[in-house]
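Saturday, quiet lab. Running sequence design on the structure tokens for the scaffold JK sent over.
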């Protein structure tokens, strides 16, 4: 089987699918500046490796089109989980102390993380703090980015409102066993940035990314 090792068109395809959720051959060709024939060859290899899957898009009576998405194995190519030991440890802790105490422990952990973030984000503008948060999340294994909110085709004033997007989850295994951590993460961002933070997209709900609207209180 073909494997993806060095940065390559195949890696670019995987990154694009991670960010967009799904794409056709033509969309990939246009975005990556590679011929459709070349894209098809790479997609064939990636599908043979089990890293992507396709579905048929029937539009009228003509030749069907195909839309490609990452398989679970494809998503696993990106840093998206702690060691199984961490999940096992939390399971043991939950069985030992009970659900209520476990909830309190998780909350204290996120409060501690929020204080750490807040100290490292500094006292700059909201944009500067958001940019620094993205850098911290990238260092922790998240594929994160942030953009100013676009309102009716016009970007709002710098430093006003932002969308933070994370295309993978570095604690996905933990979130599966302890869904409350996602709520604590939302609170953590709000406390660290001293802002209002709302969830716009959620991997746990089957979407291909987590999204957060960040704006002043």
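Result came back. Writing it out in full:
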């Amino acid at each position: 089987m073909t494997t993806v090792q060095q940065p390559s068109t195949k890696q670019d395809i995987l990154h694009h699918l991670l960010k967009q959720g799904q794409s056709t051959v033509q969309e990939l060709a246009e975005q990556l500046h590679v011929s459709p024939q070349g894209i098809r060859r790479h997609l064939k290899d990636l599908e043979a490796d089990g890293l992507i899957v396709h579905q048929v898009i029937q539009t009228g009576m003509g030749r069907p089109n195909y839309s490609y998405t990452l398989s679970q194995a494809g998503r696993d190519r990106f840093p998206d989980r702690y060691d199984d030991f961490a999940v096992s440890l939390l399971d043991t802790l939950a069985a030992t102390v009970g659900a209520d105490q476990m909830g309190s422990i998780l909350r204290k952990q996120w409060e501690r993380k929020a204080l750490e973030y807040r100290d490292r984000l500094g006292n700059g503008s909201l944009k500067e703090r958001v940019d620094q948060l993205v850098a911290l999340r990238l260092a922790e294994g998240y594929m994160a980015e942030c953009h100013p909110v676009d309102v009716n085709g016009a970007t709002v004033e710098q430093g006003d409102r932002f969308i933070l997007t994370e295309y993978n989850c570095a604690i996905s295994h933990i979130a599966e066993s302890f869904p409350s951590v996602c709520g604590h993460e939302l609170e953590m961002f709000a406390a660290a940035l001293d802002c209002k933070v709302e969830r716009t997209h959620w991997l746990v709900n089957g979407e291909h990314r987590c999204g957060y609207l960040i704006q002043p209180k």
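Notes for JK: The chain is about 50% helix and 20% strand. The two ends are 52 Å apart (CA to CA). Ask whether to fix the surface positions before the next round.
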